[in-house]
Specification:
alpha/beta; 8-stranded mixed β-sheet; 7-stranded mixed β-sheet; 39% helix; 17% strand; elongated; COA_CT_C; AcCoA_carboxyl_beta; AccD/PCCB; acetyl-CoA carboxylase activity
Length: 514
């Protein structure tokens, strides 16, 4: 038995060294951790249990039968984060450049299947040169097996991708399907075809970083949700993100007790929000004033800045927040904001996370570029996401709620449970200036002083129509609240709706305008 145990230890040590010390040193020289070092940082100390440690590839062509390394370029298994079970895979760039073989894929599929069976998140640490060319179609089949599971388990267990090196070709589609993607600045890249191929085919010259780096994917393409400074930062972001989401679609998000008083008044809100609807302010300041410990975990901070999404807690409960940002485009919805918010709303709905909407918007962004870039169909995605969501939906109209965007952003007509408004809220088809130009055009034109006449009518219109009281009289607003009591009112609404049960008509699935 001792001899066999010694043999086992030797084989384990051989597996754990991956592609060898020289390649590990090269990995470190690039500012990257190894596959195992990453798992040690990500998971609770001593919790990792490795599976399929001695798996090797089956390829005998191109001299591959003489190059077999235990693990075959990916470390897989399970462990805990803050005591909660997670399944993980970490691609090892020191072994065949982390390239995906059929056995490499089988290892990943095994832990994904286990995650779905046992109801726990899947976290993938991606650092791979792509498909293993020597295996041909078997490698392509391996990717397809992973993509299938990404799709089938979407909305069943949370899936998080961390891009910590190159991810190219078909490999990019797995992270694209997962719920959240984190990229490391300067060392991670995602693209279908690299700069060399692009230059050869189109003549365009571009660097890897410009084409598919963290900045490109967090500011332009919205492929990635976070850009981390380094490997350690990326892994800490995963741990932070998981604090807000449940293990699976059958569980509630984790409850975290707080010492922050439920009835804490925030009179500073009076000075934060200008009464002039055209003056900007930072909606994130309002969010932080009312949530537990003033802590807001923002997602996709650098994409579509006119809308803010992220997680926070209210009274210990995890909530998803969607908020218009008056600092950018006056908070107007454009096609990018609609795409960003729609996917987040659907994630929250899939995983039983209540949605809190802070609304302050003048409507959809006008313009030829918006129309030609598909603001209609992309705006319809956000409409669809809110309309089909069955989790608790609580909406607060802070200032402006104009036009069709009022309907879309968690209105009572879209089955919102509780709708609040501040006394300064304006709810109308359009702003007073635009409405007056249409309704009183002739009267203004014929006036001795058209400017004074328009100002007089705008003031009248704002006082009579641009307020929350008409909507409240129709039952569209449940309560007009004192801004200082925002925290208390939101927590009361969460308590009221915590046992909510609502379902949609039976169907295979809807046909969301993708």
């Amino acid at each position: 038995m001792k001899d066999k145990l010694n043999e086992l230890k030797e084989k384990e040590q051989e597996a754990e060294i991956g592609g060898g010390l020289q390649r590990i040193e090269k990995q470190h020289a690039q500012g990257k951790l190894t596959a195992r070092e990453r798992l040690n940082l990500l998971l609770d100390e001593g919790s990792f249990v490795e599976l399929d440690k001695f798996v090797v590839h089956r390829c005998a062509d191109f001299g591959m039968d003489k190059q077999k390394i235990y693990g075959d370029g990916v470390v897989t298994g399970y462990g805990t984060i803050d005591g909660r079970l997670v399944y993980v895979f970490s691609q090892d760039f020191t072994v065949f450049g982390g390239s995906l073989s059929s056995m490499h894929a089988k290892k990943i599929c095994k832990i994904m299947d286990l995650a779905a069976k046992t109801g726990a998140p899947v976290i993938g640490l991606n650092d791979s040169g792509g498909a293993r060319i020597q295996e041909g179609v078997e490698s392509l089949g391996g990717y397809a097996d992973i993509f299938l599971r990404n799709t089938l388990f979407s909305g069943v267990v949370p899936q998080i991708s961390v891009i910590m090196g190159p991810t190219a070709g078909g490999a990019v589609y797995s992270p694209a399907v997962t719920d959240f993607t984190i990229m490391v600045k300067n060392t991670s890249f995602m693209f279908i075809t690299g700069p060399d191929v692009i230059e050869a085919v189109t003549g365009e010259k571009i660097t890897k970083e410009e084409l598919g780096g963290a900045e490109a994917h967090t500011t332009k393409t919205q492929v990635a949700h976070f850009a981390a400074e380094n490997d350690e930062d990326a892994l800490m972001l995963v741990r932070e993100l998981l604090q807000f989401i449940p293990q699976n679609n059958m569980e509630e998000p984790p409850f975290v007790p707080t010492d922050d008083p439920i009835n804490r008044n925030e009179e500073s809100i009076y000075d934060l929000i200008p009464s002039d609807p055209n003056k900007p302010y930072n909606i994130k300041d309002l969010i932080k004033k009312v949530v537990d410990e003033n802590y807001f975990f923002e997602i996709q901070e650098n994409y579509a800045k006119n809308i803010v999404i992220g997680f926070a807690r209210l009274g210990g409960r995890s909530v998803g927040i969607v908020a218009n940002q008056p600092m950018y485009f006056a908070g107007a919805l454009d096609y990018k904001a609609a795409i960003k918010a729609a996917r987040f709303v659907r994630f929250c709905d899939a995983f039983n996370i209540p949605i809190i909407t802070f609304e302050d918007q003048p409507g959809y962004m006008p313009g030829v570029a918006q129309e030609h870039n598909g603001v209609i169909i992309h705006g319809a995605k956000l409409l669809y996401a809110y309309a089909e969501a069955t989790v608790p939906k609580i909406t607060l109209i802070v200032r402006k709620a104009y036009g069709g965007a009022y309907d879309v952003l968690g209105s009572k007509h879209f089955r919102a449970d509780i709708n609040y408004a501040y006394p300064i809220a304006e709810i109308a088809v359009m702003g007073p200036d635009g409405a007056v130009n249409i309704l009183f055009r002739r009267e203004i034109q014929e006036a001795e002083n058209p400017v004074e006449k328009k100002a007089e009518i705008v003031k009248m219109y704002r006082e009579k129509f641009a307020n929350p009281y008409i909507a409240a009289s129709l039952g569209y607003i449940d309560e007009i609240i004192d801004p200082a009591q925002t925290r208390l009112k939101l927590i009361q609404a969460l308590e009221l709706t915590k046992n909510k049960r609502e379902s949609n008509p039976p169907k295979k699935h809807g046909n969301i305008p993708l």
